């Protein structure tokens, strides 16, 4: 992820530089001189995995290649026909290698298009007439959130969007306090409004609602400086001797961890080649991990709300939606940033500075024991490495965090915040069971957030399996010789053999979790296959029924775990061309036939999420709602791998008493008086 220009030879997994974006666009233009088109996507085409396994040194039988061809992948939309083309460009050989017309598909919606759509809507006379009927004549105060349309009746032949409409009292006013009651439908290739749908009030005497004009704002200038809390003292995080991590380009070393990161238009942050130094052995763990897809289905079944199920990865590009992070605001402490490079519709590169934040955090007690006989307390505080980015997709903001821990644990967390999507109600209308009235006439609809991770493991090698672990009570009744006192329970482990078995949901009754294991390598202590335990406390079923548009398109969210054999082009659970798709190219379709996933090169697809029943406290801006999952070493090491983390002391961490002089000479590893 170079800042601007290439200054040295890039690593094969490095994102494209600005120079490489320019080179790609130039080669495309030269090869298609007479065509009129816009650049939808210019991104790195990652090298094949088998080549990279040799390049990274994990494949000991294949010599490391001296060079790896550098390629870019391009998606182009012809105007005004709307034809979609894919191209592969060899940056190494400076030529276009392939050019292919893709029928019946629509790529992601770009910010260039969203800006065009909003401008088009505000100039359209039919939209102005709708606003005038609501008493709105100043179109400069009318705003629209351009949304993907889901699966429109016309399929994917036309490139179509819908606009969710709002009003603002001023430029920085909260538009979600003033929702309008109609939705324009836009043909992006023709760039015209082709339809306007009114949202009729339900069980109301009014034909149309009045638009609520009471402001509900959260910026300090609206709240007033005098109304902000005055009792918050500064909290400062300092590392006077510097950080404990090392960065070389996009490679990161920290506390026995080693990995690379990249950043692309779609997934955003991607982790590559995670490995861990275990004594004298560097052990491979994960080849590639990313957020593959997410979906936010809404609960309101009426038109046009049933179309509101946003795929923020596949429809908008999570990477394209990323924020430029601010020092001391989004990350706290001693920070290292990585920039991100994208392209605009003309093929010109642009840089999002500070797209990824890297820093360390104290994470409380790593382990502790107090010997009650003599009062000796041994406390070791842990820390974690945080690699994060924050995205904004219309009203919602998602802060995405990868955490690495000193005990070998990996955690992924998403904090959802921003503004809840709102819908106007008539004066006598209620939200019904599908939402919450967060202010007079303002309905915030219930919805869900599902996040599907693509986990490409190489736990001590490429041949891995996935095991489902269910905890079961001993079947024999109380009093039986095998369960005399009725307290017996044990784990039952099922290793998935094929893609049909490897489709499972969380089960609270059995405390179910999963393990990624290497059946070819046994732990010398437990005699079990080495592995990593995968678990989440963020479980929720997909409430949309089978046969619904949402379920057809987002069937990947109907299960917690799927497993597939590794395939180079299967990166996105909702399909590569997710926008306006019907779900025929998606994870549930890939797993209809039995394919082996035992002791082979596999991919685990893991879904977590939350059901958001909106509260009044979520308005006008929503406090964070956290969810995520963890992967912990399970019989991977021969003991606690963090034993060598030294205990901290107050002389190091500068802890002091809040309300008395600092004359306490205690530390985190000495005997203390025993309480009487």
Walk me through what this model shows.
The modification 2',4',5'-topaquinone is found at residue 396. InterPro entries: Cu_Am_Ox_Cu-bd, Cu_Am_ox_TPQ-bd, Cu_amine_oxidase, Cu_amine_oxidase_C, Cu_amine_oxidase_C_sf, Cu_amine_oxidase_N-reg, Cu_amine_oxidase_N2, Cu_amine_oxidase_N3. Belongs to the copper/topaquinone oxidase family. Residues 107-197 form the Copper amine oxidase N3-terminal domain. The active site is at residues 312, 396. The chain has 676 residues and is mainly β. The chain folds into 3 domains: 18-102, Nuclear Transport Factor 2, Chain: A; 111-227, Nuclear Transport Factor 2, Chain: A; 246-298 and 309-420 and 446-634, Distorted Sandwich (Beta-galactosidase, Chain A, domain 5), CATH 2.70.98.20. Helices cover 9% and strands 39% of the residues. The strands form 5 sheets. Strands 15, 16, 17, 18, 19, 24, 25, 27, 28, 31 and 32 form an 11-stranded antiparallel β-sheet that branches. Strands 9, 10, 11, 12, 13, 14, 23, 26, 29 and 30 form a 10-stranded antiparallel β-sheet that branches. A 4-stranded antiparallel β-sheet has the order 1-2-3-4, covered by helices on one side. The longest helix has 14 residues, at 18-31. The model is unreliable at 2-6 (pLDDT under 50).
């Amino acid at each position: 992820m170079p800042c601007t220009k290439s200054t040295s030879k890039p690593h094969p997994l490095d994102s494209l530089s600005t120079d490489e974006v320019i080179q790609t666009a130039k080669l495309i233009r030269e090869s298609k001189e007479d065509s009129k088109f816009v650049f939808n996507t210019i991104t790195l085409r990652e090298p094949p995995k088998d080549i990279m396994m040799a390049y990274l040194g994990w494949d000991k039988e294949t010599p490391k290649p001296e060079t790896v061809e550098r390629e870019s992948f391009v998606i182009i939309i012809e105007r005004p026909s709307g034809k979609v083309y894919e191209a592969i460009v060899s940056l190494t050989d400076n030529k276009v290698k392939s050019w292919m017309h893709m029928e019946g598909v629509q790529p992601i919606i770009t910010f260039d298009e969203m800006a065009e759509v909003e401008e088009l809507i505000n100039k359209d006379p039919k939209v102005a007439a709708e606003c005038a009927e609501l008493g709105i004549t100043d179109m400069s105060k009318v705003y629209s959130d351009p949304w993907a349309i889901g699966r429109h009746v016309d399929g994917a032949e036309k490139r179509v969007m819908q606009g969710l409409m709002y009003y603002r009292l001023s430029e920085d006013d909260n538009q979600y306090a003033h929702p309008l009651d109609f939705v324009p439908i836009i043909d992006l290739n023709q760039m015209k409004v082709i339809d306007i749908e009114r949202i009729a009030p339900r069980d109301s005497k009014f034909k149309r609602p009045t638009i609520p004009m009471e402001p509900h704002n959260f910026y300090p200038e609206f709240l007033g400086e005098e109304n902000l809390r005055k009792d918050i003292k500064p909290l400062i995080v300092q590392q006077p001797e510097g950080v404990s991590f090392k960065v070389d380009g996009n490679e990161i070393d920290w506390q026995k961890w080693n990995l690379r990161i990249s950043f692309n238009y779609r997934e955003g942050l991607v982790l590559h080649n995670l490995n861990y130094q275990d004594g004298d052995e560097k052990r491979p763990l994960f080849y590639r991990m990313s957020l593959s897809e997410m979906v936010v289905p809404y609960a309101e079944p009426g038109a046009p709300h049933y179309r509101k199920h946003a795929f923020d990865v596949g429809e908008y590009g999570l990477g394209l939606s990323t924020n430029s992070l601010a020092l001391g605001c989004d990350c706290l402490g001693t920070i290292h940033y990585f920039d991100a490079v994208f392209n605009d519709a003309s093929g010109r590169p642009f840089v999002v500075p500070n797209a990824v934040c890297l820093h360390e955090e104290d994470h409380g007690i790593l382990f502790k024991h107090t010997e009650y006989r003599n009062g000796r307390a041994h406390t070791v505080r842990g820390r974690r490495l945080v690699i994060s980015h924050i995205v904004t997709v219309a009203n919602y903001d998602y802060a995405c965090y990868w955490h690495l821990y000193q005990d070998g644990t990996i955690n992924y967390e998403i904090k959802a915040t921003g503004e809840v999507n709102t819908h106007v109600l008539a004066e006598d209308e209620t939200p019904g069971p599908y939402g919450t009235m967060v202010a007079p006439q303002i309905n915030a609809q219930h919805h869900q957030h599902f996040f599907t991770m693509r986990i490409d493991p190489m736990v001590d090698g490429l041949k891995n399996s996935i095991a489902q672990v269910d905890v079961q009570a001993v079947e024999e009744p109380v009093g039986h010789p095998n369960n005399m006192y009725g307290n017996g329970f044990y784990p039952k482990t099922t290793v998935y053999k094929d893609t049909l078995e490897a489709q499972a949901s969380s089960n609270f009754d059995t405390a179910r979790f999963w393990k990624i294991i290497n059946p070819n390598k046994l732990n010398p202590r437990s005699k079990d296959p080495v592995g990593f335990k995968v678990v989440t406390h963020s479980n929720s079923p997909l409430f949309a029924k089978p046969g619904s548009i949402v379920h057809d398109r987002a069937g990947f969210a109907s299960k917690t775990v799927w497993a597939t054999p590794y395939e180079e082009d299967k990166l996105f659970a909702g399909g590569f061309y997710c926008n306006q798709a019907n779900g025929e190219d998606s994870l549930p379709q890939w797993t209809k036939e039995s394919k082996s996933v035992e002791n082979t090169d596999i991919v685990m697809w893991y879904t977590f999420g939350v059901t958001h029943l909106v509260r009044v406290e979520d308005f006008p801006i929503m406090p964070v709602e956290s969810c995520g999952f963890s992967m912990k070493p399970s019989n991977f090491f021969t003991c606690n791998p963090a034993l060598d983390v030294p205990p901290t002391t107050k002389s190091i961490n500068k802890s002091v008493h809040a309300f008395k002089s600092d004359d306490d000479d205690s530390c985190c590893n000495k005997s203390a008086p025993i309480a009487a």
